[in-house]
């Protein structure tokens, strides 16, 4: 495990293995299938699967499917796809909390028989009012001392579906005056009449997270049940169940800090709101922090793993700068992505002294630092496109690119000089008339003449049209409001910019989804699934430089 990046959880695992407390480490990643996974989940995935890999143990993928009102098969499928895409494999260790419903029910009956659980008829409001506060103890329910027989009868009838949603709950009888509110007679079962994706209509009652989670861990022989800090206060309850039930093993819960990132909201509830409210095109909108969205945007799984490793595992919550994630993305893409040329906002250039006709082939290297990527042939012709932004009719002080009378280098090709600016009736620049220096082929002039700028270009005739989608942060504020009523107001109006008249090298007509490309000077791009042979569509994964993180 040298170099794997030690942290306090790995230290605990190493200690338990070293002391012979456990023979093998067993972890689990336990998503609730109520939405798509986001990059916060990636932290938990990398941690749980990573520990199993590094210490020669195993990691289970367990769906925490205990609330059919919110869960769907679509989410189960998406979660499996995303965990695999991130590079992790559970093999035969795929589990569902719903597979344990019978056993969990049996344990609830055991608690009732032991006088440690009761059916409560209070309304939700009454229960809340009687729960007390951090400084005041709660009040006992008037149903708390129901006889065991009556509890057994009512619980069986809850199970049989006799009562409507919310009419009754089963609660553990622990201590309404406990300092830890989680121990004030927590709910074990609630009535939910809803179709479950796996158990159908068999069940009318469903276990709470607290009642299902630790017992599922115990059934599967989980040794280290790792979760986020919000559950720290639940640990005494986790342990209470394990101690008060005859479970087959004794798992322990450990908590780590959840991942928070600037400009980003990581909560399935909010992400679901963005999808349902039509604020994004779907769970895989490339602006979403979901694994599916990141994949569609072109972020490689290695970059996500690298980022998570850099973040590390801490015991205190904090917020990571989005620039740190971008750094990991650029690092991975820079290494692999072949270079191409694309013109985002084309401006026509006619080279007046270049011969009409076929043009010529020009050699361009595919990667400046990786010779094995070879080179390609580009068509240079009399009519070209350059970037509109690379021209200024009246150049500003530090603008060294194309301007009237100025000479610049066209990447891999020639020096060209702007001789004339053509405009339409409204005064918009529509074309530049230029000349080239035939002696500067390859990008250098034999007389040693210098130019201050090199710009990219494509052949007018031989380039192909493309739509380029540029993304910015989904939220404008580095610390966006997670208020369920108003978070949508924080959406960045510039989060998506569509350039529909772009031109790209013809070689890109054969590009496949998933292949990262660097468009020189413009950033890393990937083919979008909306792309068709007739209309190429690219997503910009990320620009070449950090533009917003200050
Ligand atoms: P959300 O609040 O987005 O719904 P959740 O915690 O309810 O997240 P689950 O499906 O229950 O979602 O999460 C599965 C696992 O992923 C849990 O162990 C949870 O602690 C972990 N997890 C969720 N969000 C983060 C995060 N931001 N950082 C680290 N781990 C996370
Ligand atoms: Mg949850
Ligand atoms: Mg949740």
TrEMBL record:
It holds the Pfam family tRNA-synt_1c_C. A motif ('KMSKS' region) lies at residues 265-269. The keyword Aminoacyl-tRNA synthetase applies. It catalyses: tRNA(Gln) + L-glutamine + ATP = L-glutaminyl-tRNA(Gln) + AMP + diphosphate. GO terms for cellular component: cytosol. It is found in: Cytoplasm. Its EC number is 6.1.1.18. Keywords: Aminoacyl-tRNA synthetase, ATP-binding, Cytoplasm, Ligase, Nucleotide-binding, Protein biosynthesis. Its main location: cytoplasm. Monomer. Belongs to the class-I aminoacyl-tRNA synthetase family. This is Glutamine--tRNA ligase. It comes from Undibacter mobilis.
């Amino acid at each position: 495990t040298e170099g794997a990046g030690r942290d306090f959880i790995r230290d605990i695992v190493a200690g338990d293995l070293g002391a012979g407390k456990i023979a093998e480490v067993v972890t689990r990643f336990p998503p609730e299938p109520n939405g798509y996974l986001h990059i916060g989940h990636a932290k938990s995935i990398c941690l749980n699967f990573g520990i199993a890999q590094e210490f020669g143990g195993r990691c289970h993928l367990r769906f925490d499917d205990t609330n059919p009102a919110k869960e769907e098969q679509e989410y189960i499928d998406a979660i499996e796809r995303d965990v695999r895409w991130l590079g992790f494999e559970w093999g035969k260790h795929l589990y569902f909390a719903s597979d344990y419903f019978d056993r969990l029910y049996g344990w609830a009956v055991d608690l009732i028989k032991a006088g440690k659980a009761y059916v409560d008829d209070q309304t939700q409001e009454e229960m809340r009012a009687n729960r007390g506060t951090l400084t005041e103890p709660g009040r006992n329910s008037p149903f708390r001392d129901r006889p065991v027989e009556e509890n057994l009868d009512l619980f069986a009838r809850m199970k049989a579906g006799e009562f409507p949603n919310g009419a009754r709950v089963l609660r553990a009888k622990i201590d309404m005056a406990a300092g830890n509110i989680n121990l004030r007679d927590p709910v074990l079962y609630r009535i939910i009449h809803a179709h479950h994706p796996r158990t159908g209509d068999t069940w009318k009652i469903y276990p709470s997270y607290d009642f299902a989670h630790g017992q599922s861990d115990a059934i599967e022989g989980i040794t280290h049940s790792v979760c986020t800090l919000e559950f720290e206060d639940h640990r005494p309850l986790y342990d209470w169940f394990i101690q008060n039930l005859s479970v087959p093993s004794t798992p322990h819960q450990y908590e780590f800090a959840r991942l928070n990132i600037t400009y980003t909201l990581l909560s399935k509830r909010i992400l679901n709101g963005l999808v349902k409210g039509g604020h994004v095109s779907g769970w895989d909108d490339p602006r979403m922090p979901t694994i599916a969205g990141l994949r569609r945007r072109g972020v490689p799984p290695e970059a996500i793993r690298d980022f998570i490793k850099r973040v590390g595992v801490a015991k205190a919550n904090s917020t990571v700068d989005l620039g740190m994630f971008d750094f990991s993305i650029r690092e991975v893409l820079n290494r692999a992505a072949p270079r191409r040329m694309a013109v985002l906002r084309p401006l026509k250039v006619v080279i007046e002294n270049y011969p009409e006709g076929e043009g010529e082939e020009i050699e361009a290297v595919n990667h400046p630092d990786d010779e094995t990527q070879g080179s390609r042939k580009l068509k240079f012709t009399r009519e070209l496109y350059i970037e509109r932004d690379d021209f200024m009719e009246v150049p500003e002080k530090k603008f060294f690119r194309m301007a009237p009378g100025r000479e610049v280098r066209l990447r891999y090709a020639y020096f060209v000089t702007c001789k004339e600016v053509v405009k339409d009736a409204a005064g918009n620049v529509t074309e530049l008339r230029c000349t080239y220096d035939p002696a500067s082929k390859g990008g250098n002039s034999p007389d040693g003449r210098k130019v201050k700028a090199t710009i990219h270009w494509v052949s007018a005739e031989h380039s192909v049209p493309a739509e380029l989608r540029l993304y910015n942060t989904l939220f404008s504020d580095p610390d966006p409001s997670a208020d369920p009523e108003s978070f949508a107001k924080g959406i960045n109006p510039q989060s998506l910019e569509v350039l529909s008249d772009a031109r790209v090298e013809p070689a890109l007509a054969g590009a496949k989804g998933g292949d990262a490309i660097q468009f020189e000077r413009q950033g890393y791009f990937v083919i979008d699934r909306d792309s068709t042979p007739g209309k190429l569509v690219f997503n910009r994964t990320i620009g070449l430089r950090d533009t917003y993180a200050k």
